[in-house]
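User: Can you model how zinc ion sits in this protein?
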Amino acid sequence: MSALFRPDSFIVAEVVPSPNHDERKNDRAPDMILLHYTGMPTGDDALQRLCAPDSKVSAHYVVFEDGRIVQCVPEERRAWHAGVASWAGETDINSCSIGIEIVNPGHEFGYRDFPLRQVAAVISLCKSIMTRRGPIPPDRVLAHSDVAPTRKQDPGEKFPWALLSESNIGHWVRPAPLSLDGQTLKLGDSGDMILRLQHALRAYGYGLEETGHYDETTRDVVTAFQRHFRPARVDGISDASTLLTLRALIETRPEPLA
Ligand SMILES: [Zn+2]
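Assistant: Here's the modeled complex, given as structure tokens:
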């Protein structure tokens, strides 16, 4: 049994403590919010796993489909939700982030739309975190798939990032239309265009090497990018719409917070 603790926010309905956490390294204050889906048949299955000592996984919060918010780990502690991951050159994502698990069966068990009540609860929770802890840079409200593109798909292309953005959470631009003409880059291609694509993805934060070869990692990063920022087509092929959307994001990227 893990000790009960006081929830960090009054919007938390219940504390269900998980033993799976440790200290944030180097006193790192969290400045990232990482969103996940639970990817299990039910929310209760997921909550049980996140609190089981032998699972070695956890998250700070679980948001159920009816909007109920459960806290499992105090925000000041380092929850174990990111795994092997990287963003903007940093690899200990658990130390720099607050992890939110959003209940959804996921691609494996019947991926479905996130109910509006649930999305509203995620928005309230993010607002609460930012109000109490100070601003989180918009471009550091991310998907698990953004920081672990070769392993993870969550929270996936059905997650309504546009709605979060309307509440000033996260960095988002209207995706460029699919119908745009232009060069298409895909697995197996090589050349300067690939180098430029990799450079741009890396500049935005994605962890990949600039090799000039459209390898499997590049395809996975493009797929993760599309799930988050151009969800109308998720195919790992960099078309004109993908490139323009990426360019628009880089151009509108907010200044780093002082
Ligand atoms: Zn995840």
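A couple of observations from the model: The first strand starts at residue 14 and ends at 15. The radius of gyration is 18 Å.
User: Helpful, thanks.
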